[in-house]
Amino acid sequence: MASDRVPCGSFDRVSVPTSRTKEAVMHAVVRSYSGQGASELFEQLEQRNEEIKDLIGGVPGFVSYTALRSSEGGATVTVCQDKTGTDESSRRAAEWVKENISTMADPPVITEGSTVAYFNS
Fold first, then answer.
1. What one-character-per-residue DSSP string does 53-66 give?
2. What is the 8-class DSSP label of residue 19?
3. Is residue 29 within 8 Å of 61, Cβ to Cβ?
4. 26 with 115: CB under 8 angstroms?
5. What average pLDDT does range 58-75 have in this prediction?
6. Half-sphere exposure in the Cβ direction for 69 (13 Å, CA)
7. Confidence of residue 47 (pLDDT cuts 50, 70, 90)
8. Which residue intervals of 1-121 are DSSP H helices?
9. In which band, very low, low, confident or very high, does the pLDDT at 112 lie, cut at 50, 70 and 90?
10. Does the domain spanning 23-114 belong to CATH 3.30.70.100?
């Protein structure tokens, strides 16, 4: 992999990749929920964490999942090895919401794309 050397503080030099291998690219989908049903949805996600873990974690190519509350409702972020995985996670999420949220929830705003950076500890 090609890299440029860049000075960094007290370190001598840091290698910064200038190209990525195809294997490093993953796909992510953010489902943003607001309006009717959003509050109940995030209460259920919090209470039924293990169920959600099994549901979304079982998607082929699954990498990670995060759910977060916001003042408008919240969002979920799913990262998979490819778009097929994120498409399946969105299908499963929509089905679960339809079956488990008593209030008719507004459909989420979906943002998705290939990753350009991914970190975890």
1. HHHHHTSTTEEEEE
2. S
3. no
4. yes
5. 95
6. 9
7. very high
8. 38-47, 49-57, 83-100
9. very high
10. yes
Q: Tokens 């500890």 correspond to what residue?
A: 121
CA atoms within 13 A on the CB side of 110: 13
> What is the token pair recorded at 97?
């919401």
Report whether pLDDT(73) > 80. Answer: yes
Across the chain, mean pLDDT equals 83
Question: Is residue 24 very low, low, confident or very high in pLDDT (cuts 50, 70, 90)?
Answer: low
Strands across the sheet containing 73-80 = 62-70, 73-80, 27-34, 109-114
**What would the two tokens of residue 118 be?**
């991914």
Given a contact cutoff of 8 angstroms between Cβ atoms, the answer to whether 32 and 75 are in contact is yes
Domain residue limits, the chain: 23-114
Tell me how long the chain is.
121
